[in-house]
Amino acid sequence: MENDIKTIPEEVNFIFCVKHFSKCFSSRKNKKNPLKELFSELLGQLMKDELIKNKTINGCFTYFVNTYLGNDEGKPKYAINKKTLISYHNKYANNILNKSGEPANELKDLMSQYIGYKNYEDFLNKNRNKKICILCITKYKKTFLLGFFSILPFFIYFSLNKSNESCIVWKGDHYEKSSCFNIKAINNNKYNINITLFKKIYATDTTTFFINGDPIVWYGKNKKREFEFFNHRGIHPETHKELKPITPTIIKQAKLYRP
Known about the structure:
By secondary structure, the protein is α+β, with helices and mostly antiparallel strands. It has eleven helices and nine strands. It has two domains: about 15-155, no CATH class; about 165-255, no CATH class. Helix 3 packs across helix 6.
């Protein structure tokens, strides 16, 4: 990455830095685990896609595999089945150990393109952007400081109003939109929870946990270490930990199986 900076000193002038300045705030990739970010952003974007009616992991990845990648047509962009994609998601986004390897570069490119990037390299480019920002700020520190403090009040006002659009708070069995000034609110830009669908459910031995072998219930533990169940992918409202798809083992541990 340092080599990238060494190759661009001539182009780093004031005009270049001004044009590049917005990129300093544009990306928030996880440097240690970019695939976790990639799969999380992919599912979040699929959940927002108006063409997808079945807003579950199964429904979203079925659309991505069959429609976006074209696997229900003669010549797909990339040949893969839904279960493989779900296994990748479970491994990288939910930290569930399985035998899935690393996605092929071609698949990573296509996933990146769906969420708005040119390719996977473009998705990862935040690190290079950071280096360039540091170089620009070092070179034009006084100019940037003067400009920064001039626009700071407007930036704060805009940020507070913008963030208010994305904050949510837990109400009984579901999330609702909330002011970000609410001490219990969380920023849903980080978690991509579909609050229209996400609800806590009270599972029993008659609850349907799977459809065609795919989990339709997610679980987590509250602060008392008790199992709690939800009808959609998201985070636990108390611990803010990512929920996991239900498994037969968890059903037995929670004593929800039929004798």
